[in-house]
Amino acid sequence: MWIDLKNHAGRVADRRIEDLFQDQSRAANFSATALGMLFDFSKTQIDGEVMETLIALAKASEVETRRDAMFAGEKINETEGRAVLHTALRNLDGGAVTVDGADVMPEVLATLDRMEILAEDIRKGEITDVVNIGIGGSDLGPVMGVLALAPYHDGPRCHFVSNVDGADIADTLRGCDPQTTLFIVASKTFTTIETMTNARTAKAWLADKGVSSDGRFVALSTNVPAAGAFGIPADRVFGFEDWVGGRYSMWGPIGLSLMIAIGGDAFRAFLRGGQAMDRHFQQANLSENLPVLLALVGIWHNQGMGYASRAVLPYDNRLMRLPAYLQQLEMESNGKGVAMDGTDLPVQSGPVVWGEPGTNGQHAFYQLIHQGTAVVPCEFLVAAEGHEDDLKHHHQLLVANCLAQSEALMRGRSLEDARAKVADKFEGDELERQARHRVFPGNRPSTTLVYEKLDPETLGKIIALYEHRVFVEGVILGINSYDQWGVELGKELATALGPLVSGDAPVEDKDGSTVQLLSFVHRHSA
Ligand code: F6P
Fold first, then answer.
1. Over 340-385, what HEC string results?
2. What are the domain boundaries of the chain?
3. pLDDT for 388-447, tens place per residue?
């Protein structure tokens, strides 16, 4: 079926997307509305035949069977022998979820209640600053969420320290009062070197300021004994199970900083949004199913058309960290070259995901998107309504810019129009030369997701939408979206290089480049 997709790509190669709109029903036919959201993918080359092949691909890959297996707690993460049940964390009123015959929901809901008690306690108390120490999935979700839900943030200030670069924690602590700062050590494994190094530095900072660590640390982890060994008492440890992947974990204990920021009710609204998307994903027909459609568009652009990257462009400034969040979610999940059965993938995996909020991106990299030689499918996100009631004209301009970009990408500007633009300034060969620079090839695909307003519930829907999109793409590619072996080698080598950098071990058996780099560092560090 991959070959059918490639054949379609060849068939549509010379076609103009805008011409497809001669069919008056195109916009309605190539879009879907659900849960207060409109996903419009009509500004792509997808037509009825392409859609048929994509749906057939999804069916042949048994997307629905795999989806049901995931929700049923089967061990679909086969390389780690684990279930994949981050959906249980937002299953507020969905009944039992079993893993190995045991219902996990009582524990999930009890942990959520405990989190809420602590969060409300902190929100009412003396704490002015909360510092979440974590990296990857133990950082990106909460950071993204706290920024996204700024209008609902009525708790203490939240800071996020992730990088092992001492600059990160030093810059953060400079603004904090040791008497009123709480540290959350967020690490699924509680072994991640960056996080443990930063956590120890935070402890030393308190000691240095003469403040006891008692009651100043909270741990979020599947490794409860390690959190205890670090000195965090059991009543301040919020555990979760290994069936929650790191990059899928913001719905549970890893979301504690977000809960402290916005409060328990708003956090539960976020979970409800996620759960609503779960139900939609489970119940809607493939052709009306938002995560499935988003995934099929992704497959079409990457594996079908061969576009190597996709840009995520939120016209919603508070989603400024969504692209970074999605980089981990999508690339750590689906950036793999080996299928679940150990064979090589027959198609490319990926794609590279990147982006920035519009309109800022327009004044930076949109030049390449419009006129560069590589086609970058763009995924726009925009709210129908902003939060700033007194700044409605800002929001109108924002929406206008978002819609203008997808229109410009599709239409482009012909040489004839470009000539007309500058005909009063140039003539002859110079007119031709100048005009060519002003041509926009157009025919560049984009999708737009419009939602009502970025409130906690909507954020939950958006994040769950992308999670399930990644799942569907992974199933179609035949890979395991829930492991991440590709991050291991670098970690091992970094551990081995530590003593070489500090000078505690001789530089032996290293390649010439590494020796040269180490030598420069040694010569130029005190
Ligand atoms: O980078 C690899 C990784 O394991 C991610 O998958 C994870 O989100 C991150 O490290 C942090 O891991 P932990 O939460 O165990 O500290």
1. CCCCECCCCCCCEEECCCCCHHHHCCHHHHHHCCCCCCEEEEEECC
2. 87-268, 490-524
3. 999 999 999 999 999 999 999 999 999 999 999 999 999 999 999 999 999 999 999 999
